[in-house]
Specification:
It comes from Rhinopomastus cyanomelas (Common scimitarbill). GO terms for molecular function: GTP binding. By secondary structure, the chain is of the alpha/beta class. Helix content is 36%, strand content 22%. It has one domain: P-loop containing nucleotide triphosphate hydrolases (Rossmann fold, 3-Layer(aba) Sandwich). The radius of gyration is 17 Å and the shape is globular.
Length: 221
């Protein structure tokens, strides 16, 4: 926190190629900091930190409005089309320590597509990746961000109906992270209204965690 009238939250986005990870980061920031487009290969090859401008109308404390600042670390996809698994892990681990080593990480967002089924191997790989990066308390600092929620809605699924029909693999993953999840409407992802909706949900999860942070340290290996 910069002062009593401001709050900064630190987020990191993780995900497989073409899940909308970088686009989700842009939505959270209200910017186009991260390169994001359709591609037959992984787009993001290195970690980068994006910072939002002052955001108002999102959070209040003791009756007074706080200016919110959002920092998002965008990361290479895992697995990656041109980087080895070790290269991705080393790059992300170093970036987490560099950017959030002192202030800490409030929430890691595992980005999945709501319009595609989650296979057991993909879920296991994602969990192993985040667990190795964040350590034994990863479950306390991780939430699932489901992108392309608009496509699920177009297919006739409300959020409740979607989860009721979800695969056992996705439900098991949500159970691991204590049912922390957020839906992102890609059709509205660039609007202030959608950003405010998603940020309020992010803040709700952070508040549930009593604003604790995960300290990201450099590996001793």
């Amino acid at each position: 926190m910069a002062d009593s009238n401001e709050m900064t939250i630190n987020l990191a986005v993780f995900g497989r190629p073409q899940t909308g990870k970088s686009a989700a980061g842009n939505s959270l920031l209200g910017s186009s900091d991260f390169e994001s487009h359709l591609s037959p290969s992984s787009v993001t090859t290195c970690c980068s930190l994006g910072r939002s401008c002052r955001i108002s109308g999102i959070i209040r404390r003791n009756g007074s409005e706080l200016a919110l600042h959002v920092q998002v670390l965008d990361t290479p996809s895992y697995p990656h089309s041109s980087l080895s698994n070790k290269q991705v892990k080393d790059t992300v681990r170093s970036a987490l320590a560099h950017h959030f080593g002192k202030e800490g990480l409030h929430l890691a967002l595992l980005v999945l597509r709501a319009d595609l089924p989650l296979c057991p191997d993909e879920s296991n790989q994602a969990v192993q990746f985040i667990q190795e990066l964040l350590g034994p308390t990863w479950k306390d600092f991780t939430a699932v961000l489901l992108t392309h929620a608009d496509k699920a809605e177009e297919a006739g699924f409300s959020e409740e109906a979607y989860l009721h029909s979800a695969s056992s693999t996705l439900l098991s993953l949500l159970t691991l992270v204590r049912h922390r999840y957020i839906f992102l409407d890609n059709q509205k992802s660039t609007t202030k209204e959608e950003r405010a909706t998603v940020l309020r949900k992010v803040l709700h999860l952070i508040r549930q965690n009593n604003y604790q942070v995960l300290l990201c340290k450099h590996s001793k290996e």
